[in-house]
Amino acid sequence: MTRWKTQRLLMTCAIAFMLLCASGCGISLNRREVVYLKPGDPVRLAQKVKRVKVWAYDSKSQPFLTTVDLDEGKYVLDDTK
């Protein structure tokens, strides 16, 4: 096999490998899954979330908007009624 054919074969294989990985059908180093939860299910935070806007209540039971940091490992719920 000539040098030109070898280089062309290697380049074709490299491009095919990149396309396979980019399409998601090949090797995935950062695999993620999507899990759907029912409304109202508690969720545990995997990492700290900074500057989250939440509704809180003052001493007169009036709601007000404030900003808090949610620490890793805390459980949170959505506002389903």
How many angstroms does the end-to-end distance come to?
72 Å
Low-pLDDT runs? none
Number of strands: 4
Q: What is the string of SSEs from the N terminus onward?
A: HEEEE
Tell me the structural class. Answer: alpha+beta
Number of helices: 1
Mean pLDDT across residues: 82
Strands of the largest sheet, in order across it? 1-4
C-alpha Rg, in Å? 25 Å
User: What does the overall shape look like?
Assistant: rod-shaped
Binned, the helix content reads 10-25%
Major sheet size, sense and barrel closure: 2 strands, antiparallel
Portion in beta strands: 25-35%
List keywords for this structure.
single chain, 81 residues, alpha+beta, two-stranded antiparallel sheet, two-stranded antiparallel ribbon, 1 helix, 4 strands, 25% helix, rod-shaped
Description of the structure:
With 81 residues, the protein is an alpha+beta fold. It is built from 1 helix and 4 strands; from the N terminus they run αββββ. The chain has one helix spanning 3-22; strands at residues 43-44, 49-57, 63-70, 75-76.
